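Re: [help] complex structure
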Amino acid sequence: MLTKKGAATRQRIIDAAADEIRDRGVGAATLDDIGRRSGTGKSQLFHYFPEGKEQLLMAVAEWEAGQVIEDQQPYLGQLTSWDAWRQWRDVVVERYRRQGVHCPLGVLITEIGRHTPAAQAVTRQLLEQWQRQVQTGIEHMRENGFISRDVDPVRASAALIAAIQGGVTILMSTGSADHLEAALDLYLEYLGAAAPSYS
Amino acid sequence: MLTKKGAATRQRIIDAAADEIRDRGVGAATLDDIGRRSGTGKSQLFHYFPEGKEQLLMAVAEWEAGQVIEDQQPYLGQLTSWDAWRQWRDVVVERYRRQGVHCPLGVLITEIGRHTPAAQAVTRQLLEQWQRQVQTGIEHMRENGFISRDVDPVRASAALIAAIQGGVTILMSTGSADHLEAALDLYLEYLGAAAPSYS
DNA sequence: GCGACAATGGACCCGCAAGTACATTCGGGA
DNA sequence: TCCCGAATGTACTTGCGGGTCCATTGTCGC
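Output below.
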């Protein structure tokens, strides 16, 4: 019920839709454009996503969420030293600075995630997953005495996610990554405050 | 060229548009709905905003930006003691928690501000204005020794704005204000870290 | 009170983009 | 090789929403 070729086409459509949405926003992205961009027609689109735009949007949301995690996973799983933290910080800043407005996470949260409860669920799940990884990192650092016992891993990880999210949103609105950078730096300073081993 | 009645109608239209956008997003808000909600027809809409939706959106953006500042001004102008900071924190959290999804700032940044460069400028200006006030507060606290000399007011205020923004965005996506609260608390803790007079 | 212009109501137009119908080609398993 | 369902192309319908027109009513200055 889905040949190899079919699966490839389906993915091409998702890619094209994601690109189109990043470029022009979910409101301005039309099915015709997506079809054209993916080198297919609208008929395929409805062939693979019979429920239409909604369904395609959901697929894009899930895809983008996966991309975000996949992209950060190698760093997120290894937040066990200050060096690793700093490296992760650099990756985040660099990545978003380069991407600028075309940010999967930002698009997901500010464009797609609002439309339907189902899409919200995807967003929420992504945020939870992300936060949990950070939390684990903080806990690890705390165990090893690099981070003060006064730091609550749950609240601290929540704050970090919010900080990144805010930085990215502002980046998307103003084109400047200064806020993102400042937020991350200050946050790391906070984490390391009571621990002399931080830089 | 604009009678008293006319001005009132114009404002009613802006209000209705703002409401409609908060409720259903800028993409789904139709001129017909806005007209109906404001108790006017589409003709008035074009009477007062001859350039159509774009122009109306700009008016809404400016209006929302003004609301945000006006709302916080009394607190922002007085950030000269830890008590004032905490009070401000409470106001921010409480206000956004109550408003939930219907948040002027969030809507401005994530919905309207993306559409046109002109709207982006409004957003940028709002953020700058906001940040400057926070910055002034930090500087004042620093002068008086409540905040460590190590804290850079510019970066710290940028980080704080990002944190709030991120918290609000997450609130709008998930309905929970936990992130906002955690982020604000953490940054206040950071600010007061080197000063025993905090808390 | 009257004249000019602002304010309002409602019918209308038009284009675009979502969604449909159907005919054709492809591809892979028996 | 042949057949069935999957994959694809094209042409079409339709509703919705931005934008226009014009006729009517209201408001304010003199």
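Chain A has a mean pLDDT of 93.
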